[in-house]
Amino acid sequence: MNATQRTYQTLLDQIVSRRIPAGEVLEERRLADELEVSRTPLRAAMNRLLGEGMLERLSNGSIVVRSFGVTDLLELLQIRSLLESEAAAMATGRIPAEPLEGLRARLQALLDAKTPDEKSDWEVDNALHDLVAAYCGNRNLATMITAARRQVRMCDVERLPQRQVQAREEHLAIVEALLSGESSRARQAMAAHLENVRRSYVNSLGYLNHGA
């Protein structure tokens, strides 16, 4: 990994984790000193993040961390549904059985436990969606899915703890569909999951008039 790649990854991690909060101006000199890099790899990393929509340039030329709100969240979830449902169909039969069976066992254990476990839920969620993107057979599609998922995490909206059990069931349905080898079933399971997430936010935020 070269200096530009390391700088990009460090900045991305800080933005997604909100250690660099939305709206904060990125000052090249300060960041270069903090990251112990020259301005050349820093500018290259920032330009990449601008292209990915994680940063935005203001009219005065300043570069800030982009803010994502409720409307962004709902639109991104719709985009994810379109992209990831097709990716799930394309990944069917490509993903090795071992990681899917491992996810099935973890999800069943979480469902049996019936207790909150945000860390494990996030790990399973990431692992499943990463597998679908990685094995869909289309690198550009995988890149778009990864970008959309990152932006969803950036949205300034509270999580929905009441969806915990339902999300586990939906993830398990996706895993079972992928293991079945039926691409149409995998497509439907993924689409249903992401549409349920979107509708839950629509309902919880009072955006009923914006829902499908």
From TrEMBL:
Under Gene3D superfamilies, the record lists: GntR ligand-binding domain-like, Winged helix-like DNA-binding domain superfamily/Winged helix DNA-binding domain
Q: Name one molecular function that GO assigns to this entry.
A: DNA binding
Q: Which residues form a coiled coil?
A: none
Q: Which InterPro entries match?
A: GntR_C, TF_FadR/GntR_C, Tscrpt_reg_HTH_GntR, WH-like_DNA-bd_sf, WH_DNA-bd_sf
What keywords are annotated for this sequence in UniProt?
A: DNA-binding, Transcription, Transcription regulation
- Provide the HTH gntR-type domain boundaries: 1-68
Matches recorded under Pfam families: FCD, GntR
Q: Which domain of life is it from?
A: Bacteria
Q: What is this protein called?
A: HTH gntR-type domain-containing protein
